[in-house]
User: Fold this.
Amino acid sequence: MVDISEVISKTAYELLKRAATKLPQDVKWALRRAYENESSPIGKAQLKAMLDNAEMAEKYGISICQDTGTPLFFVKWGLKSGLNIDVRRPIMEAVKKATIDVPLRPNVINPLTKENPGTNIGWGMPYIYYDLDPEADYVEITAVPKGFGSEAKSTLVWITTSEPIPEAIVRCVVDNTLTAMGEPCPPTIVGLGIGGTADIALHLAKKAIFRTPLGSLHPDPVVAELEQRVLKALNSTGLGPMAMGGDTTCLAVHAEICGTHTAVVPLGITYQCWVARYSTARIYPNGEVVYITHPE
Amino acid sequence: MSQEIRLPTSEEVVRKLRVGDIVYVSGIVHTMRDMGHRRAVEMIKRGEELPFNLENGAIWHCGPIVRRVDNSWEVVAAGPTSSSRFTELGAELVRRQRVRLTIGKGTMGKSMVDALREVGGVYLIATGGCAALYAKQVVKVENVYWLDLGMPEATWVLRVERLGPLVVGIDSHGNSLEQIVLEKVRQNVSSIYSREKIDSSRSYVWWPKKIPGSIEACKI
Assistant:
């Protein structure tokens, strides 16, 4: 008899470790491409340091960035898996173990007292988002150790429907990105959530970041066109890697939409730094685990 | 092309550096983040002595991952954190302690530009996210202070060997790399706006009343 709880805990640990120490293959390719195309010497030197660093972290199995963020988990529950167990407890065990063993930086504090228990656990962290998939026969877990250099540049704005929405969005994303300068560690992945309510817009923007493969377009051609417009605009600014000047400011723009009120459209803007840390696996009821983003 | 700086350094050495220069730093650096900056400045204002010496030295905006090995500490990962949070407190430390090198990522505001010009110091930009690379350049953890603030917020006294590459982001003559980059960016943005049919005089945003991201806000 397989102890699924144990499998979840081991998998969640492995996901945190892989996410913290190894970039997904498509992100590595995108950085490599940016390096090859970069015309600014200072921008090229930044990308070289990033690629060298990623290689070194992978080789020694240590964190790519010292800000291993706050532990977020996206769980998609396949109703056909027949699994009916608590994932919170095994995920908490995994976070505790990863903080000591990987190690991750103990970042999580009480937001009012600033107390740091040193475990990355407490007051609702790790935070778990739940979603259902009626057709899937597995439980899918994505671990996201989310760094705050990029997180803290997230924004929510409201655009009235008297405005041309796509133009307004391009304007807002360009301006916000230029104000953020080097602090979200460009080249970034930009996530946009358009519509819904305040929380929906930001949540969609956050989830959009982890779309795979990196840079794939939204199936709705109107959204896809906007994604390409924003990407082109950002990469025409000349801001470049770490905002020191150069050709690649952004690796990809992923947008999601949701129906919204006729008066005003919320736009959530989120950033993922070039150290794009997320790792996904599927757990089947027989205990089999398939790693999606980091196969080995 | 690149320049070597050995710590402690001097006003004379840092006055020679110019925006855009690539620098490698060796010697003792002190890490400091939000809570450490606050504590240090408050102690100084009360007339107390800091437990460590920053004179002619370096502050690194960094919260490393550090591991206990037997009776000593080992840095596992160490890279820069966003520096604009420390503009006011950092400028205070430059003025009062004669800190010559401030290392971080992003940029720092006007108070820091002024302090560096008056005192003779530079702001150096490390490549964000490169914690494995920089950790390998930390040869020894000499000491740690204020561990009660937590591992990231404590002040770690690190002996580094050729910490870099670091780029001079603000020199001691009032120049900043940010302004040079933004000058070019502003020209590019006006052609992006006209291509995308965006009217730059309109905000397009209903709420918040002041659009949070506005290129005007980028000015130091």
